[in-house]
């Protein structure tokens, strides 16, 4: 097995329940991780029902394709619902299917009679993920002296995206063709991402963009968190949004087992201007200011093979 990526594991309950000194210490550890490899594992993160949500993801993806297509994502701006294998890829071929859940509107969600417990449990889980994400962003705000509520103030109206992903069981030689992967190399485009993964493995990160991808191995009871493009821009490159991909896990045999993961992508409000924050005398802004809402829609459309001007064309 290749050497794993060097990603710190931080116990997060010292931030939530600790005193001021504990909170400052955790904030610094988180900031150090984000400004070096761009990733961190959090243990004691306070998000419950993780196993239940993995179970519900399996129940949903086990439904026949025709049924799942009733909830097919059709609008990049709403960005909610089911994405079939082949609908999303950007410059390569992914082998995955997904379901997106939001906090304000879920028009394309199975009802409680169609999939018992699905919506209610996802709503609950979503709330816990959002709380954790905002606490993680608070760490950055503290470490950068932006004021503790900096990120709360720019995420009040935003509708972050909880995603369930299923990478189906597949022949190894399909995934290992040139240009194919379970998910091709990319950076995430929001502020930051929480990522729960099952025990199968295959996630790899390239923290320094040298092409040297290393496994971000599953660690029981933790959530992985990575910086995404808008935070890299906002922090003028201090926090690093880094390449990652999902490839074959290290298992023997020609048929790869299926894999499930649950990312939660946090975005700022659509009307926020992401203008790099400079902290030092003479520091030059490395990025142009951009509007967060336009950035999100542009990136979502770009990632889909089927979405053109907000509609499914297939
Ligand atoms: O499935 C994973 O582990 C990674 C998913 C991912 O990188 C993404 O959805 O952006
Ligand atoms: Fe990603």
UniProtKB/TrEMBL annotation:
GO terms for molecular function: metal ion binding; oxidoreductase activity. This is Clavaminate synthase-like protein. Gene3D superfamilies: B-lactam Antibiotic, Isopenicillin N Synthase, Chain. InterPro entries: DIOX_N, IPNS-like_FE2OG_OXY, IPNS-like_sf, Iron_ascorbate_oxido_reductase, Oxoglu/Fe-dep_dioxygenase_dom. Pfam families: 2OG-FeII_Oxy (PF03171), DIOX_N (PF14226). Belongs to the iron/ascorbate-dependent oxidoreductase family. GO terms for biological process: small molecule biosynthetic process. The keyword Metal-binding applies. The keyword Oxidoreductase applies. Keywords: Iron, Metal-binding, Oxidoreductase. SUPFAM superfamilies: Clavaminate synthase-like. Residues 157-268 form the Fe2OG dioxygenase domain.
């Amino acid at each position: 097995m290749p050497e794993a990526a060097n990603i710190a594991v931080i116990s997060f309950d010292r931030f939530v329940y600790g005193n001021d000194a504990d909170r400052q210490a955790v904030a610094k550890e988180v900031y150090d991780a984000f400004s070096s490899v761009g990733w961190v594992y959090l243990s004691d993160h306070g998000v419950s029902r993780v196993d239940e949500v993995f179970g519900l993801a399996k129940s949903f993806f086990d439904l026949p394709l025709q049924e799942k297509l009733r909830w097919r994502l059709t609008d990049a701006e709403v960005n909610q619902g089911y994405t079939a294998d082949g609908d999303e890829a950007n410059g390569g071929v992914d082998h995955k299917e997904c379901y997106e859940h939001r906090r304000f509107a879920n028009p394309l969600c199975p009802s409680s009679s169609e999939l018992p417990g699905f919506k209610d449990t996802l709503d609950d889980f979503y709330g816990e993920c959002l709380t954790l994400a905002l606490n993680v962003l608070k760490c950055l705000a503290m470490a950068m002296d932006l004021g503790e509520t900096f990120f709360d103030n720019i995420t009040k109206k935003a509708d972050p995206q909880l995603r369930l992903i299923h990478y189906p069981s597949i022949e190894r030689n399909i995934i290992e063709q040139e240009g194919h992967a379970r998910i091709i190399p990319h950076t995430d485009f929001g502020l930051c991402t929480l990522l729960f993964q099952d025990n199968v493995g295959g996630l790899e990160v390239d923290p320094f963009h040298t092409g040297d991808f290393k496994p971000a191995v599953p660690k029981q009871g933790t959530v992985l968190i990575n910086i995404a493009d808008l935070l890299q821009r906002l922090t003028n490159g201090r926090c690093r949004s880094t390449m990652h991909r999902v490839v074959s896990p290290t298992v023997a045999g020609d048929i790869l087992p299926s894999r499930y993961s649950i990312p939660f992508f946090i975005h700022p409000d659509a009307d926020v201007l992401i203008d790099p924050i400079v902290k030092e005398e003479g520091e030059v802004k490395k990025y142009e200011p951009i509007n967060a809402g336009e950035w999100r829609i542009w990136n979502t459309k770009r990632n889909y093979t089927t979405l053109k001007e907000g509609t499914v064309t297939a």
